[in-house]
């Protein structure tokens, strides 16, 4: 088997191979773009070739920025289009491609890799851990009243400003600008490079699929939030809601919940613990469903990754980290002072022992180390290590990722 990078001449073969791996057929091109693979960076794609030279496997990576706790923006590779033809599975090709790709990412000087997992059982063995989750919130229209706000400018209070209804094909620049402001302050959020918007490569509201956009403007008329939605068979489905603060989110939710001639409103891609359900006058009206993992994180350089994010508690903790897939094992002293971390090799006794995938799960603050201790994934060696780890790894707000890639 040979694994090699692709060139422009390989694009058709790459696209055909990854679709065949999943049993799909490539979509028919449409006016205005909208093909997901048009955003691929061809020099970051890999082909696995059988002995006779036929392409039998694929993998690719996008260049993104990831927002870490403390609003640190760091480069990250978004792994995608990973597949092996059914005729060539169970031969070690996937493992070989993932190992080849991780080596390449390290050679680029990157310390983090992320992906969206098609199946939850695949990528843990390659060192990826689920770091964010997403859900749907379903609300019957006749039970959609929001409770009366008690405070003058809280998450419950109406946002100052107005809402304008636009069509998707007429407000691309607004969506791009508002999303970019949002993602820079939201831990776990990924950038959406301009070429994605320009090529309409992705899911709504990036894609050319027809959508209405409720744009929220502040008191000065500047856009500070939007909700992308469609209506079908009496159900109003919000693809995504982007807001620069909770009051703007509430205003957009109020707009969707108050829409006439619909029987149900579905908010897709909201954090499972989002406060909107608590804002309903009838708490039981909000049904959280479809809770699932979303962004998976893989650390390639433990000291580099741990010193890149912001921290909100001082302390020292020794981490014994095993990386079975890459055959690596090291012990690190993590020291946090005044929001900054130092991470160096040590021979001190560990406070916690953990797999690299579990470090990926707790890295953004979305999973408490104590949860993984209770699940049997992380081993605690000192009585206060778990409490300290929970305090250290927490983020200023729950991490969340909306971007599909």
From TrEMBL:
Acetyl-CoA binds at residues 82-84, 90-95, 118-119. It comes from the Bacteria. SUPFAM superfamilies: Acyl-CoA N-acyltransferases (Nat), SCP-like. Residues 1-202 form the N-acetyltransferase domain. CDD domains: NAT_SF. The active site is at 123 (proton donor), 405 (proton acceptor). It holds the Pfam family Acetyltransf_17. Keywords: Acyltransferase, Transferase. Signal peptide: none annotated. Belongs to the acetyltransferase Eis family. Homohexamer; trimer of dimers. This is GNAT family N-acetyltransferase. It comes from Streptomyces koelreuteriae. The lineage of its organism: Bacteria, Bacillati, Actinomycetota, Actinomycetes, Kitasatosporales.
């Amino acid at each position: 088997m040979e694994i090699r990078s692709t060139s422009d001449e390989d694009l058709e073969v790459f696209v055909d191979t990854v679709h065949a791996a999943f049993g799909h057929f490539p979509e028919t091109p449409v006016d205005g773009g909208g093909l997901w693979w048009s955003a691929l960076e061809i020099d970051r794609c890999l082909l696995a070739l059988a002995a006779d030279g036929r392409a039998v496997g694929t993998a690719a990576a996008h260049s993104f920025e990831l927002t870490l706790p403390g609003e640190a923006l760091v480069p990250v590779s978004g792994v995608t289009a990973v597949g092996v033809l059914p005729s060539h599975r169970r031969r070690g090709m996937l493992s070989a491609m993932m190992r080849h790709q991780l080596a390449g990412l390290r050679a680029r000087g990157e310390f983090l890799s992320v992906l969206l997992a098609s199946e939850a059982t695949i990528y843990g063995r390659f060192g990826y851990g689920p770091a964010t989750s997403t859900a749907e919130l379903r609300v019957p229209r006749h039970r959609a009243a929001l409770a009366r706000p008690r405070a003058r400018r809280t998450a419950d209070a109406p946002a100052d400003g107005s809402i304008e209804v636009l069509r998707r094909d007429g407000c691309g620049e607004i969506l791009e600008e508002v999303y970019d402001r949002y993602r820079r302050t939201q831990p776990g959020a990924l950038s959406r490079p301009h070429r994605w918007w320009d090529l309409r490569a992705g899911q709504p509201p990036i894609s050319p699929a027809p959508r209405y956009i409720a744009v929220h403007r502040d008191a000065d008329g500047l856009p500070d939030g939007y909700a992308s939605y469609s209506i079908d068979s009496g159900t109003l489905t919000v693809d995504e809601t982007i807001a620069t603060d909770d009051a703007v989110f509430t205003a957009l939710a109020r707009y969707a919940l108050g829409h006439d001639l619909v029987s149900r409103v579905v908010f897709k891609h909201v954090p499972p613990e989002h406060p909107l359900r608590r804002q309903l006058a009838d708490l039981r009206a909000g049904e959280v469903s479809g809770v699932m993992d979303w962004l998976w994180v893989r650390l390639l350089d433990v000291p580099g990754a741990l010193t890149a994010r912001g921290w909100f508690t001082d302390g020292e903790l020794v981490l014994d980290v095993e990386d079975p897939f890459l055959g690596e094992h090291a012990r690190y002293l993590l020291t946090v002072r005044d929001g900054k971390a130092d991470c160096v090799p040590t021979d001190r006794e560990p406070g916690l022992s953990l797999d690299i995938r579990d470090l990926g799960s707790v890295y953004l603050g979305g999973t408490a180390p104590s949860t993984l201790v209770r699940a049997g994934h992380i081993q605690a060696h000192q009585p206060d290590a778990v409490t300290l780890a929970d305090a250290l790894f927490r983020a200023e707000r729950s991490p969340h990722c909306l971007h599909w890639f």
